[in-house]
Amino acid sequence: MVRALSCLPVLAALIATPAYAGDTAARVHVSSGPLQAAIGDLARQSGASIGFRDRGLAAVRVRAVNGTMSVEKALAVMLRGTRLRARKVAPASYLIEPAPRAAQGPPRRPPPQNAGPRPAPPPVAVPPPQEIVVTATKRDIPLGAYPGGFQRIDGEDISTADAARGSAAIETRLASVVTTHLGPGRNKIFIRGIADSSFVGPTQATVGQYWGNSRITYSAPDPSLRLYDVHSVEVLEGPQGTLYGAGSLGGVVRVVPHAPDLERVGGAAFGGVQAVQHGQPGVDGGGILNLPLVEGQLGLRALAFGAIEGGYIDDTRRGLKDVNDVRTIGGRVALRWDPGNDWIVDLSAVGQRIKGADSQYAEHGSGLSRGSGIAQPYRNDFWLADMIVSKSWGPLELTTSVGYTRQYVSEQFEGAELVEPTDPAQAPTATTIAAYNQKNHIEMLTAETRLARKDRDGKGWLIGLSLLSNEARVRRTMDGAVHDTPLTGVRNKVREVTLYGEGTVEPLPRLTLTLGGRLTHSRLTGASSDVLETVADSLSPEARKGRKETRLLPSAALAYRPSDKLTLFARYQQGFRPGGIAVRREFIQRYKGDRVATFEGGARYHDADFDIEATGSWTMWRHIQADMIDGFGFPTTLNVGNGRVLSLGLSSRWRPARGLEVDGAIYFNDSKVSDPSDLALTIGANTLLAAGFAEGADFADANAAARRLAQKDMRRLPNIADLSGRLGVSYSAPLSDTVDLRARGYLRYVGKSTLGVGPILGQLQGDYVDTGLEIRIGQPTRGVTLSLTNLFDGRGNRFALGSPFLLRERNQITPLQPRTIRLGFDMSF
Which has fewest Cβ within 10 Å: 32, 270, 310, 614? Predict the structure, then answer.
């Protein structure tokens, strides 16, 4: 349907349906001809709102557009050579206007001084925003019809300063997402209160992370891929077992990069310098190039970037300042082939290396300093190669993807070397500083084929088959001046074959019912490695045996839309993680798979000026996989028991005036281990006894008292604050005909939680405020940016640790990065 833009004499093509919201690819066929007719055809085929205010543009001739592409790309092809541009003024809404003069050539001569003030241009009528499409559902469901918690960050809203922060930028934008803070490349992401521990161990992550269609983590930390040149970031609150399988207990984070443009040569360059109060300066920069190799059929897109983040932690024992600098280098390359007949083939490769010179923890009461005997560096190398082939037949779409991921994570922790004294009657003494090294090698191969039918009102279906092979090898050594000791390592292999499906029907007007299920057959094998293998097998002979698991994960959801602006929803879904083997000092032990079942309900209201979403969920978690610290300081993985998680969230956006937007969110979490396992209680009690608890008491009495205290310390699940909130403000306005102002600021509060499960890890962390401000002045094609973070130069104590071997004797904290100011630039063509 074509409607007139109010306040405009010229018709603009508008579509009332929320078909694809202009954010996803659709099949379009638009003939060359006058602009007015062309945008009418494009609007009808894509579901976007497109208009113009200058009556003289109606007759401008534009190019033909033919193929499967987004609205933005279709408009770029259509307007090529016209000196016009399409500016996004609201979700799925575009205004056609003359391109900035910098892109057209020399500026026009200014009017004479006596010409008087120019009349104000007529106001731009912004069409009502169309609904966002949830592409992470794998069949493109309009947000109004999606029965679950969902959040999205538009790539246009991610500045180069934010992009350089990787996953930390997602955390600052979305209150339901939190991360640990051991350092970029070794952190974990958690959503909706589902968290296990801070360590990089053999367990599978609780959040599924995806780069486009490819999974990038399984039993590995968050690689914190830099968010340059991305289209969007989508977060589905979990569990998401039906669509994404194992490891999506808390939800899914999906980053969608920009695909190559087959029609236009373009590129960008960006960079900046930063000053860190109490620390060293930093620098970052990069570039993007888009190159059509065969116009309309074959295109290349490449990105390269690098950064040095200045350190701010002093080591008083070694007499060093600002030891924790981080260096990052990486890039991406993508190739897209459009052979016609609605086929698309995408090939891409991603690489990134992060090197941290030292750990970023300090000691309580010492400001930004600590005393360490050795450096504690870390490193993360990440590689991804994937291929995606898709074919469309109208509403039907077939997608096949293959991806290979490799990740190498190296960490070093300070520990005390225990040396046997010459007199056996004496206790061992710490005489030499030792270094505990842990190296993780993870390789993963995934393949998936799915067929989906998508309808404009959210109805449709999906069926898919996926294969996964993941192998993780952990090697450990204790290196010291006296002797170097290889420790027992482990190797875990997982092979999965999965059949899954989901369908949505409308049994009653405005009511949709979604039913789905996932059937997964897994084969798990594990083995010890290195020199203590004989000892390990003798202590845990069952750990080497392979085993098979078959899991059926059902799901059901309801969505009711009493009006076009309001959606009420309820959902039930399950998720799981397979088991494996882990190290406990010099021997290995087996741990079971865990499983969650979540009931969720909520409401979502979406209007042109105001959005609000409220959700509540109750999760039952069985055989929780988590990490604990044993009596010798070594981290180990085991099933700590059964638990439950209650989560309540409220988020909103308000646009009270043109160019001004205010957003706010608050989340409550109440999580606990309601039924601790006997093994977890035993390890917790032994840890307390090793620390001198009830020294001198009768062994039986001391052991019983230690178990009671351990049970009390294990009640809380880690890393998820009991209360978190965010308040953000953004403002944009023209300063002149060619220069615009954009400003954005935020304030986040992170409440209290613990580092992990058990006596040693039960220390409270959190309870801090984080702030940021960014101002950009310039044109769409070039500008300068001033960014500030931690405006009040607060310290706080983020969810992280220093060395697990020193937790009992030192009060370690991980402070916020001090007040930081960055001056940057960006330019594009």
Answer: 32
Tokens 């099949």 sit on residue: 27
Which residues, including other chains, have CB under 8 Å from residue 328's CB and lie 6 or more apart?
A: 184, 226, 305, 306, 307, 308, 309, 352, 353, 354, 355
Q: Is the pLDDT of residue 519 over 60?
A: yes
Ordered DSSP codes for 171-229: HHH-TTEEE--S-TTSB-EEETTB---SS--SSPPSEEEEETTEE--SSS-B-----TT
- Domain count across the chain: 3
| DSSP character at residue 115 | G
Residue partners of 782: CB distance under 8 A and separation at least 6? 102, 825, 826, 827, 828
Three-class DSSP category at 77: helix
Provide the domain limits for residue 71: 1-99
Say how far apart CA 370 and CA 355 lie, in whole Å: 21
Q: Are 353 and 383 in contact (CB under 8 A)?
A: no
- 3 state DSSP class of 233: strand
- Calpha distance 596→519 (Å, rounded): 16
Same domain, 236 and 264: no
Interstrand relation of 207-211 and 214-215 (parallel, antiparallel or unpaired): antiparallel
Q: Which amino acid is at 131?
A: E
Q: Are residues 199 and 51 in the same domain?
A: no
Backbone angles phi, psi at 172, to 5 degrees: -70, -20
Name the domain boundary from 225, 254, 283: 254
Preceding peptide of 562 cis, ω within 30° = no
Amino acid at 393: W
List, for residues 105-120, the tens digit of each pLDDT value: 334 334 444 444 444 4
Compute the distance between CA of residue 690 and CA of residue 686 in angstroms, rounded to an integer: 6
The overall average pLDDT reported for the chain is 84
The mean pLDDT of 46-72, rounded to a whole number, is 78
DSSP 585-603: TTEEEEE--EEEEEEEEEE
- Residue 454 structure tokens: 């998508």
Using a cut of 0.85, tell me whether the model's pTM lies above it. no
**What one-letter code names the amino acid at 635?**
P
